[in-house]
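Protein modeling request. Please complete all fields; requests missing the sequence field cannot be processed.
Requester role: graduate student
Desired output: 3D structure, token encoding
Chains: 1
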Amino acid sequence: MMGGNMNKMMKQVQKMQADMAKMQEELANRTVESTAGGGVIKVVANGKQEIVSIEIKPEAVDPDDVEMLQDLILAAVNEALRQSQEMVSKEMGKLTGGLNIPGLF
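Delivered output (105 residues):
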């Protein structure tokens, strides 16, 4: 009796692992975009929490205020990474049914 339930559970776990691997591949190709400074800084991140592009419009560059440019870039990068993490958590949550398994993704 117990063997059948255990086999069924193991098959479910294996399917979930396969689905999660496929989802991670898909998420690696999906991107989120963040802007700062009214759009003068644009940062794009993928589902692997990698920054894939940063665009800086010329009007954002003020040689007398480099610190402001640095702050805008940091704000846009951090927001893009936050959105990327949120996207991954949301999509993985669909597969795990909301299970919170530390270290899973």
